[in-house]
Structure prediction request, 264 residues.
Amino acid sequence: MAVNLVQPSIADSWVNPVICRTMNATKLHGLVSAGICSRTNKSRFIESQVGFRPITITKVTQQNSGLVGDETLAQNKRELYQALQGINRGILGIPSAKKSEIETLVKQLESQNPTPNPTLQLEKVAGCWRLVYSTISILGSKRTKLGLRDFISLDDFSQTIDVAKSKAINVIKFSAKGLSSLNGQLIIEASFKIASTTRVDINLEKSTITPDQLMNLFLKNYDLLLGIFNPEGWLEITYVDDSMRIGRDHRGNLFVLDSRPIWR
Prediction:
């Protein structure tokens, strides 16, 4: 507990309102609620040779905790976004040191989750999200069989959550190198139901690949492709705020998604 002694230059006791405004920040980048400004002022008069002088004693108890927490959370998010730059969501493999760095940063955010019971606030997970990192990996023979080594490239991954219908639609876009007209997508539709305050159970409903030319390219190894991206099972929502969501599934995979219109 810090005690600030303020001796005003005027006769009336006065406390600068900036103190309270500083402690009353509503949100920092839409991340978490800030701490409430509460303070106790006591004025007393001290008798001296020249009379009475007003002294204001302002006790500050935990006012900084919310703001400091917000700043720490924002900094951890910036560090995570920086670590995710240039790794193509990690799906085609990243060095183990980079993977460990990301895991550490993710755990720091999970420990500060501003939404501890996300399934009780499903409006926070509703809408469109884009995958920015996952520990799902397509390596070795899988990558070769799917043509992702030389011929086909992975583009955007998006997920739309419809809370009213308890539906999740995942869209994975592909493009064929050298064939600008051949762009397509794998669409996976799933339903979910609440299993706990942090977990949802997921059931696969259907999947499609469009256009037909892309389906023909994947047809031979379609089960392999679907096996990689099939969301069926359960998902633990370990972090969610206005722009970021983190989850871990029953297979131990980690997912980091972002809801901002443009992410770099």
Notes: The helical segments are 17-23, 63-83, 96-110, 140-145, 212-218, 222-229. Residues 110 and 215 are 38 Å apart (CA to CA).
